[in-house]
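Recall that a protein's primary structure is simply its ordered list of amino acids. Everything else, from secondary elements to tertiary packing, is in principle encoded there. The following example makes that idea concrete.
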Amino acid sequence: MPSAADAAVRPARPADATAIAAVQARAWRQAFGAVLAPEALEAEALAEAWRRAVAAAPSPRHMVLVATSGAVVVGFVALAPAPDPDLTGIVDEIVVLAVDPPHQRAGHGSRLLWAATAAMRGHGATGIVAWLPLPDAVLRNFLASAGMVADGARRTLAAADGGTVTQLRLTAALG
């Protein structure tokens, strides 16, 4: 097993898409398996979307970073400009932050969040936002421990299975 010294964060490459999709599927199965349709958690279906996202980002503020342990992708974060019209300043959104369940609680999430905020600052962002499904208390607690706070905004999204998912918004200033 690689040591902590072998852990790193780097920009994703198109060749990472399959690994990113597999991490997302396993992490989301653990966090949302009870509320998401099984087809939403199939890595094969996710891989092509990640390949496109990495290969053809629409702007420099759209990016995917991966956490690695040795040569293995163990987590990722996807960033984009926040579309919320009520936010002021240049605000970037954590679209997805996931760490493979067997690699959780090893510092990968913290490294991803640090690298993400550094990249956001580098692009001039003054704030950060994340929309979290209400069932994801683990990610909510992690982001709260890093200084993000619920700002009262909520939204409800339609799920592929015909149900809905309610999300809570967390925000923080980037100083």
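Strands lie at 7-11, 63-69, 72-81, 91-99, 127-133, 149-158, 164-173. The first strand starts at residue 7 and ends at 11.
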